Write the structure tokens for this entry.
Amino acid sequence: MGAQGAGNGVDIRAGRVKFSNVLPGVGEMNPPGMAEAQKHFGTGKQVGEPLRVAEPYLIRQKWDAYSEEQHAVWAELVRRRMPQLREHAAEEYLNGFEQIGLQEDTIPNLAEVNRRLSPRTGWNATPVSGFLPPDAFFEMLGARQFPTTTYIRSRESMEYTPEPDIFHDVFGHVPMHAHPVFADFLQHYGRVCAGLMADKEKLEKMGRLFWFTVEFGVIRQKGKVKLYGSGLISSHGEGTHVIEGRPEIRAFDLDLVMEQQFLVSEEQKVLYAVESFDEIYEAAKEAEKRLG
């Protein structure tokens, strides 16, 4: 995977955002409970209004088509991560894992996940066919629909896959969408970025905010640094890197985050710890004031 410094154009391949393209994964456009959740929580669009830019990329998850081997790969990936996460993941992630009904031995059925998730925060894990253009990605975030890959890596790629799969997307990302403040933050982030499509430099700054929160976010809880970013949650190597104290952990500062250089292909040298998830929501609103 070719690495790019953030100063040369943000290319967030390990997660969902690639600002020259957006890489998602593979359900239903309006899963069960979606309409009712939108009435309560609202979206960036009118209630019930379909996605327009993202619509060509929406597919259905063929859950019955997963093989025993694919379920076994999911099970092994989850069982590798959970011992570490039970001790070192943020409380909100662990609560979300239970609240959306993820199972350790079975690939998630996104319709079932959404039946639990939508009533809580209005979010849905929405299957997509592959790469999304940025405007489609941000449209989906603004509508509280998270682009989700249905592909799962092979056993030969257990340690590393260059493209997100359902393990990264659902295991890594979706439990946090059950937390109301994080859910509001992510929707607001999508709306802000949708309004910045014409300005590459501003999008790069927003890309760094995504990287150091959604992908590589950490939070201080009970005197310890806990993981919540999907890149740390889904990767044993990245998670261990943080737990062993190798990166510098700085207090979250929007000015520093939006200027922080990084390489996608390397373990992170600097991370930014928040004290609460209100911090990142307020950061997204402050970024909108500055860049909008």
Observations:
- The beta strands are 17-18, 21-22, 124-127, 145-148, 218-221, 224-227, 248-251, 270-274.
- The mean pLDDT is 86.
- The CA atoms of residues 14 and 217 lie 13 Å apart.
- The chain has one domain: 6-291.
